[in-house]
Amino acid sequence: MTNKLIVFSAPSGAGKTTLVKYILKSFSEIQFSISATSRKARGEERDGKDYYFLSNQEFKARIKNDEFIEYEEVYGGNHYGTLKSEVDRIWKDKKIAIFDIDVVGGANIKGMFPDETLSIFVMPPSIEILRERLIERGDVSKQEIDVRIKKAESELDYASKFDNIIINNDLEESKKIAHTLIKEFIDE
Ligand code: 5GP
């Protein structure tokens, strides 16, 4: 099997993380690409599982060292990025890397590996529903929700750069669509 990548991108709250977790459970040949971030760990998050948590200084040193495939300042000064070593690790294991990353990062990865990447944009049914989901999730402040909603409005313009768009109206339906797309991609 050639080296392959699967990207899930969406505005925050659209449901991409739930879909990625479902795909990871369904396909043993797919492994999660753990991003690096300079933000602090939240709740149950663990270093080396959810993210590689780096200090600002360390993140910047790694940028300078050219260790990232892509990186970005996503929210309020926090950096997020994909380390080259992470993709190498997954490919060395003969697995397919799956990314849960923001819309710009996802489009960048597709641009860098156009033939190896299946890119999926998860679209929220509406901005209002997105806001409700973020409030229900309860892990970010009201102020941060406003920032994320504003960003979501501009992120929706990126959808056309992706191979597929899943409108996440009904989670079970979205899971089925994602499963079918990925099965086809793996069997290619
Ligand atoms: P959170 O702080 O909620 O974990 O993530 C904030 C945003 O950063 C989400 O949209 C998430 O998908 C995105 N993100 C996570 N890892 C990466 C990465 O490696 N690169 C980019 N560009 N965005 C990322």
Structure description:
43% of the residues lie in helices and 22% in strands. With 188 residues, the chain is an alpha/beta fold. The chain has a single domain, classed as 3-Layer(aba) Sandwich (Rossmann fold). The chain is globular. It contains 7 helices and 9 strands; from the N terminus they run βαβββαββαβαβααβα. The model has no long low-confidence stretch (mean pLDDT 93). The relative contact order is 0.22. Guanosine-5'-monophosphate (5GP) is lined by residues 12, 35, 39, 70, 72, 74, 80-82, 100-102, 105.
Q: How widely separated are the two ends?
A: 9 Å
- In total, the number of strands is 9
Compute the average pLDDT. Answer: 93
Segments where pLDDT lies below 50 for 5+ residues? none
Class by alpha and beta content: alpha/beta
Order of helices and strands: EHEEEHEEHEHEHHEH
Using the alpha-carbon principal axes, give the shape: globular
Bound molecules: guanosine-5'-monophosphate
Number of helices: 7
Secondary structure layout:
Blueprint: E1 5-9, H1 16-26, E2 30-32, E3 35-37, E4 51-53, H2 56-64, E5 68-73, E6 79-83, H3 84-92, E7 96-101, H4 103-112, E8 117-123, H5 127-137, H6 142-155, E9 164-167, H7 171-187
Helix pairs in contact: 1-7, 5-6
This protein binds guanosine-5'-monophosphate (5GP).
